[in-house]
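call fold target=Protein farnesyltransferase/geranylgeranyltransferase type-1 subunit alpha
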Amino acid sequence: MGKYEGDPAWDDVVPIPQDDGEGALAQIAYADEYAEAMGYLRAIVAAKEHSSRVLDLTVEIISMNPAHYTVWLYRASTIFALDHPIQQEIEWVNEVALDNEKNYQIWHHRQLLIDHLYPSISSDPVALQKLANSEIAFLTLMFNSDSKNYHVWSYRQYLVRKLNLFNASEIKSIEALLKVDVRNNSAWSHRFFIVFSNPEYATPGSAATAYDPGIPDALLDCEIEFSKAAIFEAPQNQSPWNYLRGVLRKGGRPLATQECFASEFAKIESEEEVKSSHALDFLADLWNEEGETEKADKALKLLGDKYDPIRKNYWEWRRKALKAA
């Protein structure tokens, strides 16, 4: 006899058998328990029941198969139908997330919870700040385990937009992560999002890396200096070089404005004076923009022959593109 069969709390439910293939991965490890629980959930869904026992059942199923999207969705609809305390649900989700770091469904569920909660606190600055603080604290805990978790970063971007966290506190939080690991490309990307998507000055509808005339010059200068400082710290780290390119593009400034800086890390006159392959790449694009194709070609040849030979075919393709232009 299964866990639910014979239980007085479930006597009124006739389980619906599981279809072939559904939950196959979970059944490999939890054949009997999982199949029984899903049978009861199907019956519950068919009856459109939302009750506390539904929440208990979904907890059981999620513990066996945390990637079951349909179960998460039905749990959310039950939470909302019962007016179940959202903060209590978030605390439970925190525990599940810590045990299943790469699970997308958890973060989608969390987003549904915040969307549901937001209208009731949107006019209360204290409640909004309390929510922001608790969410950022938990995300920090997640990043302590994996600072490059894509699902967590995606959720953080959603949270920034939802709670309007385009502020100095969020910047400071990201800087702390970059101090721990200056090569964390996810943190660099998030910083770019915070700085250049701020609705206070960003042009609505502006593409992520497109020129935006609304960005203040002082802000552009600040971000250029920030990226350059990180490059000095780790010249062979591609992230700040990409960031620098993005900032220049956002401000409509040519790469040539940073020729002196980039040349500090790569001198094509002396093949031994190259401290960064990314500087060579930057200079190749810069010189190509300026019409100095011979210098650009030499930089690309150095990359293919000596400083990044594993991608020699790519650099040769770039050289051919120069000659064809």
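return ok
The longest helix spans residues 24-46. Residues 85-165 form one domain.
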